[in-house]
Amino acid sequence: VLSAVGLAGWLPLLMWHLLHCHLVSVNGVGLHAVRQWSNVPFLTVPLARAHGKSFAHRSELRQAKRIVVKLGSAVVTRGDECGLALGRLASIVEQVAMLQNQGREMMIVTSGAVAFGKQRLRHEILLSQSVRQALHSGQNQLKDMSLPVLEARACAAAGQSGLMALYEAMFTQYSTCTAQILVTNLDFHDDQKRRNLNSTLHELLRMNIVPIINTNDAVVPPPEPNSDLQGVNVISIKDNDSLAARLAVEMRADLLIALSDVEGLYDSPPGTDDAKLLDTFYPGDQQSITYGTKSRVGIGGMEAKVKAALWALQGGTSVVIANGTHPKVTGHVITDIVEGKKVGTFFSEVKPAGPTVEQQTDMARTAGRTLASLLPEQRSEIIYALADLLTEKREEILSANKKDLEFAINSGRMPASMLKRLSLSPSKLNSLAIGLRQIAVSSQDSVGRVLRRTRVANNLDLEQITVPIGVLLVIFESRPDCLPQVSALAIASGNALLLKGGKEAANTNRILHELAQEALSVHNVRDAIQLVSTREEVEDLCRLEKMIDLIIPRGSSQLVRDIQRAAKGIPVLGHSEGICHVYVDHEASIDKVLKIVRDSKCDYPAACNAMETLLVHRDVLRTPLFDQIIDMLRTEQVKIHAGPRFASYLTFSPSEVKSLRTEYGDLECCIEVVDSMQEAVDHIHKYGSSHTDVIITENEETAEQFLQLVDSACVFWNASSRFADGYRFGLGAEVGISTARIHARGPVGLEGLLTTKWVLRGDGQTAADFSEQGSMKFLHENLPVAQPLTGQRTSN
To answer: What separation in angstroms does the CA of 654 have from each of 148, 402, 630, 633?
Structure first.
């Protein structure tokens, strides 16, 4: 072990032994119990698991305790193959050290000695040649110098010490000790050597040291072209892929992460038009893929990686192949893999019973295009059928919902507001059915509606028509009633739909999805709506930018914010906060104020359109109206927080608000004082979320100014903020409320799920016909939208 660590590392190793012995003598059995969980006594997350079977799902990778990280030549070396990619190495070392400090046992199988040595030897040769030329010629101007071909084993011998010194220096920044292990194929064929290697590695791991392993390229013979993986018990060490696999199985590692210069395993050579990255690879899929060329450096290639990965998988070690060459693009690839995120290709022996989420998306898009091509009456029939099923299958739906409620109540982790959202009732189902029938009526002229018609030139007519957006991903929490609403809107707008519901409503969501597919079967488009029931994390779904066209989150503000951060390549329709204001003007009616403020705050405090801040004109203070407002809020058990200015008016004020930009989502609100309507508008613009804001006044001029000035999705005069709702607006239902500035704003119903395309009907015209030398002129004549195209063409 001292040989592996090196003389420079003997002092910290000795200190570790002294500390370890001291702890044993003081804590006795106590320390032993801790070390069953980890090599680090302060670790609180249990990581131990029985080895022998690989993980079946990505989410289980969080349990991995012993991890081998294999760094391919393309990861470690620079693009010119002379020297190391220091930025990438620094990121990798940081991640490995972080996982090591969590109590995991990390091992690195690294390439790079040849590249590092090549850089050193080239430098020495150039220096030697320049000195020799200067001595012989006596001139300052040097001739062109050619470099000899450098032998790989010599480069490895020159580079190994420098490579290890670099690793040691980097890991020292994280108070992590490293040790160097050089091996050859013979070390695995000799039983005694193999036992020695195994013993050394176990001892290093026991002492919380990161072993850094490499093939001894200074003495190793060239790889045999036909040498291959031989059975389950034997593997030829011909490259670092096979070395990493052999070590992972020998050391009973839980996970092998193989980093290369490709994102993972593709179903065809990367770069080809139809190549698709495989999220998960199963041993039985071997025959369905073809391999491309090897990377610019290294001797393995993807075929060697796959064979090594399958060998390790059979030995009980899970494997992920991922890209380690673009840290700015791939992020913290190692820690992301350990956290179970969808990075690279995960090798699993357990094939899921149903389709993958990628397959579901493909199925939904194909069926969605057929749905969009149906006649409006046919799409309406599907929605009517779904509305009828909600009534006919009421008992089955309520029975499933009861199971979800009982589980949620027994778990004791769900707040009352979420339980209310989770609960379904006969009246809720009736309201849903009524809303769906409204959508069926309004969908008659949605898809394919002509918005604009222009005669560009003679026999050249242009139309702008409505079309579906494509594939929608709707993510919702504990709101099963959202599923039929969104399904109906997707059907009416001809969109394919992926649904990801919260696990707390799993039973209810399952039966509602079955009913939606039963309704879709009326016109053979059953697959247009898919329920994602696999273990996909929301963040992983947000990365499917090539498959999903729009994400619509329905849930807490935290959920929306998380999705907006994760979905970098996919538009998100929604709002992260619902900080709604009600402004009480000095010319407001007492009855209207009490009624509107009570409804805005107390009707459904958890809703995004509930009042969070009550703005009061200064002249209303110390009036009977203000006293009645306070009494009403106290009667409704609303906790009041005082804004800074309101607090200054009071001798004994309520608790002062921590932030004027707070969404309480409960029976709480902030009260603040303003001097004028304009000041109320300024406050709303500074602290609001552009959701819904209300003015209560009898002065029409003041009200109209407020309605014009406030830049929010919904602005009301003498009406409750709770009216900001698709059903109440007569949209039938909504997929959410958007505070975005483009596409859709406010409650988003059917219209918000449509986009447009331009259709041009010509007769052989070209752009050159309209140039200065051309024979045609633009007309750009606006035509009536209702005018049929038949008979419009005229001769030149």
So the answer is: 83, 41, 11, 13
Helix (H) or strand (E) holding 322: strand 318-323
* pLDDT tens per residue across span 197-207: 999 999 999 99
How high is the pLDDT of residue 443?
81
- Kindly report the number of other CB atoms within 10 A of residue 272's CB atom: 12
* Tokens 């093939």 -> residue: 215
C-alpha 317/C-alpha 3 separation (Å) is: 28
Q: What Å distances lie between residue 33 and 21, 27, 36, 67, 226, CA to CA?
A: 15, 10, 5, 22, 49
The pLDDT of 105-121, averaged and rounded, is 83
Output the CA–CA distances (angstroms, integers) from residue 630 to 282, 594, 653, in the order listed: 65, 10, 12
Distances in Å between the alpha carbon of 555 and those of 252, 532, 610, 668, 735? 43, 17, 15, 19, 11
Token pair 């012995």: residue: 21
What one-letter code names the amino acid at 146? S
Each residue's pLDDT tens digit, 334-376: 999 999 888 899 999 888 777 888 889 999 999 999 999 999 9
What is the spatial distance between Cα 75 and Cα 60, in angstroms, rounded to a whole number? 26
- HEC string for 208-233: CCEEEEEECCCCCCCCCCCCCCECCC
Beta carbons within 8 Å of 396's beta carbon, 6+ residues apart: 511
User: Is the pLDDT confidence value at 495 over 70?
Assistant: yes
User: With contact defined as beta carbons under 8 Å apart, do 701 and 618 qualify?
Assistant: no
Angle of helix 152-172 relative to helix 113-137, nearest 10 degrees? 110
Euclidean distance between CA atoms 567 and 352, whole angstroms: 26
Tell how far CA 658 is from the center of its chain: 31
CA-CA distance, 86 to 170, in Å (whole number)?
10
Answer yes or no: are the C-beta atoms of 665 and 691 closer than 8 Å.
Answer: no
* Encoded tokens for 558: 């935290």
639-642/668-674 β-pairing: parallel
End-to-end CA distance of the chain: 92
d(CA 72, CA 259): 6
Query: Residue 417 forms beta bridges with which residues?
Result: none
Instruction: Please name which of 521, 534, 540, 532 lies closest in space to residue 499, comparing C-alpha atoms.
Output: 532
Determine the pLDDT at residue 284. 77
SS3 666: coil
Q: H helices of 582-623, where?
A: 590-602
* Among 360, 354, 330, 359, residue whose Cα is nearest residue 342: 330
How far is residue 655's CA from residue 644's CA, in Å, rounded to a whole number? 10
**Amino acid identity of 405?**
L
> How many other C-beta atoms are found inside a 10 Å radius of the C-beta of residue 282?
16
CA distance 776 to 770: 5
Strand order in the sheet with 210-215: 178-183, 210-215, 105-110, 66-71, 255-260, 318-323, 345-347, 280-281
Residues 320 and 61: their CA atoms lie apart, in Å, by 10
Residue 240: pLDDT over 50 = yes
Residue 290: CA atoms inside 13 Å, Cβ hemisphere, count? 9
> Which residues are bridge partners to 670 per DSSP?
613, 641
Residue tagged 């091992």 (tokens):
107
Compute how many other C-beta atoms are within 10 angstroms of the C-beta atom of residue 464.
15
How far is residue 264's CA from residue 448's CA, in Å, rounded to a whole number?
Answer: 41
Q: Report the SS3 class of residue 581.
A: strand
Compute the chain's Rg from CA coordinates: 34
Question: CA-to-CA distance for 546 and 277, rounded, in angstroms?
Answer: 12
Question: φ, ψ for residue 572 (rounded to 5)?
Answer: -120, 125
CA triple 595-688-690, angle to 5 deg: 90
Residue labelled with tokens 């910290």: 12
CA-closest candidate to residue 378, choices 529, 530, 521 = 521
Contact 393, 519 (CB under 8 A): no
3-class secondary structure, 35: helix
Please name the helix (run of DSSP H) or strand (run of DSSP E) that holds residue 584, with its range, or none: strand 580-584
